[in-house]
């Protein structure tokens, strides 16, 4: 029974809970047990909120018993990335500087999840301040890939994706600034979606790079991701950059896609994302996916987006610039860590000592890069130029979408690498986000859906699908159709 | 501290140098809520009570622009004859300071909401100077630091500091002039007159409390000296903490004499921020900055650009009130005031209350007489402005009405005003409480008059003989007998009638 519950999809669990076949408490307890059993090895969670989860599960069970109409995912457990504020529950963002901080308010995503009756199991591990591609930058130790515990689970949202792959939760929330939902999805064999920028409120998402950060759903199936997408998306007056438009019909699109027919759909293969630096097994998996999409009736051709070559350097100016400002607030004055306040030191010294002790090396590196890039005399050459590249990338997307309904590429150039392998080589680490960054810079939606396992190392590979802004449903349709054609590819054994 | 600073004689300064002014005024808008969150925007209050995740800069919190603040900014821009931006953004000004919750201030940088305007400023002698406005932009205020344990109340030397974030996020408009050259010996006066005119304008727009003493209007005065011999621009200093109109004038004058002395001794003026000290009237250097400040401005990514439609701008233009100086011109004409009288009223900050008193039913002369004499004396003795007296124009109008009706004598009217100022309630409340009632019952007065005439038969005879001025002695006796509660004019009439 427990085994069935942790293997089930969110859609299946919801149906069973709402029909009274199982209770949300049973489902929640099964997942809490699974976490207790496996998280010593995986370390997906930074904080498990057993009481809060069971209390929410009981509320849903009572509502079901009382015959109340409950929302589609009510009673289903979820793992929440520790970047989202949770009232009364610790939020560390993977950083020592926020160790022990208990937020007094819920992020809009948190609030929406609670209102929808979703059961929040706890907070998942992440690279500190979402800066990284391996979760090795967490101040609380790395998360391990359930497929191979010696390998990274991707990042920054490695905790959320690993929780899904380890069957600790059927649903998770991630945030994606340069690929932090999609790349972990790819390397853990799970689905990860970065919605259109502004599609999901950023209120309560502890900012890394405000103009790029976007929260999105993570799941083991495309339909589950779509169901979660509709719970968290929508206009929020608390976020000025939130889009005041109807939520794209992603659930309907995912169901439509399950029919398996993509006749007439035009798919562009981005030629910039292949060749040197790409693992052969990843490319072979991608080519197999292209063949399957053709079989489903899609028309597929190459498309060149030349400015995408400059996406990575542009990203590593814009994101650090914004982060250097966003992270200035962590100064020991109002919350979080305070170091050296022994009555003899000045405010500036306490601020400085706290930031020295509280931030890890990657965060410091990016704060320094960003501070430099925004400095008087360098602004135009760095931040200014990067913004121009951003415009070019947006234009390349626009041109490509004149001819194609969606674009595809591998999600990340390689499968999961070994823990420690790239820890001292930031450039190699940054390249994990090569294919995912353009969609962040353009604000367009993109997702990763598993394309099976690499024939070289048996590790999962992801197919990235990109769509125009507010056309999130297009990629869900393609992903669902592909997922059905692809079939099962096994899972990790823990 | 001051004694160490060499100063040059003012006349010598203006003989040798041309002062160049630049004035930056920060105005706190009195919107109901803060600039970027829903917290109440109120002065005072228990520390850290008007706060929320956004204005405390908690992780994850986001700003949302207050539309009313944008509207106020545009109205200020229009009243200052500025162009209103078609499209503009907020920017982040990055620097660390404990009372700034995010360690960046959300401000505007190279895209202000209003720019290229002017304000005509009238000096004491009637000369009009046009001050050109560089820009008016929106930003948020910081919290307040209270430095405890030091001698000066400044951070240096303090034992510890307390932070109050109630003010953090209050909407501010910063109004920056272009360089104001050519003011010569009148530079200090021009500075004061400009801030005065701006204050009056903002008050008429009803966008701010414009209270310098409470910090809702703050002025930073930039001053430099240009040697007449070369005409080269000098190095400027920026004086902060100038908290009254008089201080604006004093600070500019002090800086001129100080800078001139520095230059005269062969030194160089240091470009720095200086701090004005009200008690000594001098300025002292702010904290020395070892490196040039680099605020690393960049467009605020948490906010969307502001693109006010031209229709909106024109709608707002129609809401502009009669400007203070237009109003003055109209009042001068309607009330037939000389330039001098008008200027005295304006300088005494009494014109608005007089107008309000007239609007409440008083005649202009009567209203003016009360505000510039008795009430002005009361304000003076308390060391406050007449506008800060605890009496409203409507209450003054009521007192005047009661005097005209014969219910109060002038002497009693002052007592009533005193009662109002002392917080005893409205004029009618004071009359009630203090038992003031003009003795207006003629039969009682007639009895008193007859008694007085009987008591001073020789005086009575003189009056009967036509020496009308002798009536004063009888009137005085009656007033004494009635403890001042009689209407003296009426008493006189009765005396004359009895002796005719």
Task: Describe the protein's architecture and organization.
The complex is a heterodimer of chains A (494) and B (500). With 494 residues, chain A is of the alpha/beta class. Chain A has a single domain, classed as Alpha-Beta Complex (Amidase signature (AS) enzymes), CATH 3.90.1300. In chain A, helix 5 links the parallel strand 2 and strand 3. With 500 residues, chain B is α+β, with helices and mostly antiparallel strands. Chain B folds into three domains: 311 residues, no CATH class; 84 residues, no CATH class; 58 residues, Arc Repressor Mutant, subunit A. Helix content of chain B is 39%, strand content 18%. In chain B, strand 5 and strand 6 form a beta hairpin. The radius of gyration of chain B is 29 Å and the shape is elongated. The interface between A and B is large, with 44 and 30 residues.
Query: H/E series of chain A, N to C?
Result: HHHEHEHEHEHEEHHEHEHHHHEHHEEH
Mean pLDDT figure of chain B = 91
Helix % of chain A is 40-55%
What composes the largest sheet of chain B? Answer: 9 strands, mixed
- Per DSSP, the total helix count of chain A is 17
Strand content of chain B: 15-25%
The chain-level structural class of chain B is alpha+beta
Dominant shape of chain A: globular
Strand order of the largest sheet of chain A: 1-3-2-4-6-5-10-11-9-7-8
CATH homolog superfamily of chain A? Amidase signature (AS) domain
Order of the strands making up the biggest sheet of chain B: 2-5-6-9-1-10-11-12-13
Indicate the CATH architecture of chain A.
Alpha-Beta Complex
The helix/strand series of chain B, from N terminus to C terminus, equals: HEHEEEEEEEEHEEHEEEHHHHHHHHHHHH
InterPro entries (chain A): Amidase, Amidase_CS, Amidase_dom, AS_sf, GatA
Family (chain A): Belongs to the amidase family. GatA subfamily.
Keywords (chain A): ATP-binding, Ligase, Nucleotide-binding, Protein biosynthesis, Transferase
Organism (chain A): Lentzea albidocapillata subsp. violacea
